[in-house]
Design a protein that fits this description.
The protein is about 5% helix and about 45% strand. It is mainly beta. The longest helix has 6 residues, at about 60-65. It is elongated and about 115 Å long. The model has no long low-confidence stretch (mean pLDDT about 85).
Length: about 150
């Protein structure tokens, strides 16, 4: 899944320490980034705010160092969901986290030229062949009074 938008906010990198499955201490670094994917009403120009938080970690966190807020970007990501039950009991809740695995600068498509392009040499105008003459009615079969 790709998100196209503007880098709205980049939070500081956070580090969490934990013990791995082998008992060795491990470090996990991540950063939350907010992408502005707002849309605009085509008729009124009204803005519909759509700020999407995305988690960057690992290699994608290294890629993020090349970008600054305000950059137009394409973020390649995937949603990750789950559920939990609060410790005090009650209804289980669901959550969604969007994890990025790549980011690149969005390049605007090239603009159409403002003046029309000259015709290609092979596309010269060809005149259609002359139409055959219309059939003439026979003079002796004319029975109209005028």
């Amino acid at each position: 899944m790709d998100l196209l938008g503007i880098l709205y906010e980049i939070d500081p990198v956070e580090t969490r320490n934990f013990n791995g499955a082998d008992g060795q201490p491990r470090e996990y670094r991540f950063c939350e980034v907010v992408i502005d994917c707002s849309e605009y009403n085509k008729m009124t120009g009204e803005r519909y705010e759509n700020l999407v938080p995305v988690i960057f970690s690992g290699k994608s966190l290294d890629q993020l160092a090349n970008f600054a807020p305000g950059s137009r970007v394409i973020v390649s990501c995937h949603p990750k969901g789950g559920s939990f039950t609060p410790p005090e009991g009650g209804k289980s809740r669901r959550y969604v986290k969007i994890r990025a695995f790549g980011i690149k600068l969005f390049a605007d498509p090239p603009q159409a030229p403002s003046s029309p392009a000259p015709p290609l040499p092979s596309a010269q105008r060809q005149t259609p062949p002359p139409a055959p003459p219309a059939p003439q009615p026979a003079a002796d079969s004319d029975d109209l009074p005028f």
